[in-house]
Design brief:
alpha/beta; Rossmann fold; 2 domains; 6-stranded mixed beta sheet; 4-stranded antiparallel beta sheet; BCA_ABC_TP_C; transport
C-alpha cells in the first residue's frame, strides 16, 4: 500500500490509540505491566494514579521516548511500536512534559513560530519569514488559541508560570496534531490559571483527542469524557468521570475519601 493510500485508510480509523499488552522494564523494575487501552479518535481521556503508578512511563512508551519492552502500540491504525519519536510526531502525535521545556530567550510568538516551522516541510529553508509565511500565520492562530495575544512580543523568561504552561499547550498545537498527551499541565497553577487552562482545553477543535495526566481532579475531570486509573504500573480501573469520582476503591487508594 502506498503512503498516500495508507494515510487515507488511517484517517478513517475509529481509534486514535490502541495499546495491547504494553510493558516497560528497566532492569528488574517493572514500570508498566501488560497495559491495554483503546482511545477513540477525538476522545479526551484522563489517566490518574499516585506518584509512581506508571503514568509518565506510559506517555514515554506512546511517544517513543522509551519504547515498550513488550506489547504493541497502534496510532490511527498504524503499528508505531518500533518507530522513533520524530516519526510519531510526523504522524500527528504531540506531547507536553511535567517540567517546562521552553526557549526562555525567545519571545512568545517566536516560540510558536519555531514550533510551527519545526513540523513544516520548509523547516530547513533559509528564506526569511514575511507576513504571508504559513508558519507565522499558524503561530498567530496558536497564540490566540491559548489566550496569549497580548504577550506576543514578551520574552518567555518573563512569563508567569501559568502563562508558560499555556505556551506549552500552544506549541503542542503546531502542525495540525491528531492527538496530544498533556503531562500535568495544571501543576503549580493558581486557581485563576487553572480555570483558564480548562477553557483552553475545552475549546480545542473536536477532532483533536488527548490524554491528560493530572493530579488536580477539578481540572482533569472537567475536560475529559473517560478516565483510566493506574496502580503499580498496571491498569486498575476505567470509567466515566462520575464513575471514577464515586468509586470507593479509587477514593480510598488515591483520593483519601470522597471528592467533592
Amino acid at each position: 500500500m502506498s503512503e498516500t493510500a495508507l494515510r487515507i485508510a488511517q484517517a478513517g480509523a475509529a481509534n486514535a490509540l490502541e495499546l495491547r499488552g504494553v510493558s516497560r522494564h528497566f532492569g528488574a523494575l517493572v514500570a508498566l505491566s501488560n497495559v491495554s487501552i483503546t482511545v477513540r479518535a477525538g476522545e479526551r481521556r484522563a489517566v490518574l494514579g499516585a506518584n509512581g503508578a506508571g503514568k509518565t512511563t506510559l506517555f514515554n512508551a506512546i511517544t517513543g521516548d522509551f519504547p515498550p519492552t513488550a506489547g504493541r502500540i497502534r496510532f490511527f491504525g498504524e503499528d508505531v511500536t518500533q518507530l522513533p519519536a520524530h516519526e510519531r510526531i510526523r504522524r500527528g502525535l504531540r506531547r507536553t512534559y511535567q517540567t517546562s521545556m521552553l526557549f526562555k530567550g525567545l519571545s512568545v510568538l517566536d516560540s510558536l513560530y519555531l514550533a510551527a516551522r519545526g513540523v513544516s516541510r520548509g523547516r530547513f529553508s533559509f528564506v526569511r519569514q514575511n507576513e504571508r509565511d504559513p508558519s507565522l500565520q499558524a503561530a498567530r492562530e496558536m497564540l490566540h488559541a491559548v489566550h496569549l495575544d497580548h504577550l506576543a512580543d514578551t520574552p518567555v523568561a518573563d512569563l508567569a508560570h501559568g502563562q508558560q504552561r499555556q505556551l506549552e499547550v500552544g506549541m503542542a498545537l503546531a502542525g495540525a496534531p491528531r492527538f496530544i498527551l498533556f503531562d500535568e499541565p495544571a501543576a503549580g497553577l493558581s486557581p485563576v490559571e487553572r480555570r483558564e487552562l480548562v477553557q483552553i482545553l475545552r475549546a480545542l477543535p473536536a477532532h483533536i483527542g488527548y490524554i491528560i495526566i493530572e493530579h488536580d481532579l477539578d481540572v482533569a475531570l472537567r475536560v475529559v469524557e473517560s478516565v483510566s486509573v493506574m496502580h503499580n504500573g498496571a491498569l486498575f480501573k476505567e470509567g466515566t468521570p462520575d464513575e471514577i469520582q464515586n468509586d470507593a476503591d479509587v477514593q480510598r487508594i488515591y483520593l483519601g475519601g470522597a471528592h467533592g
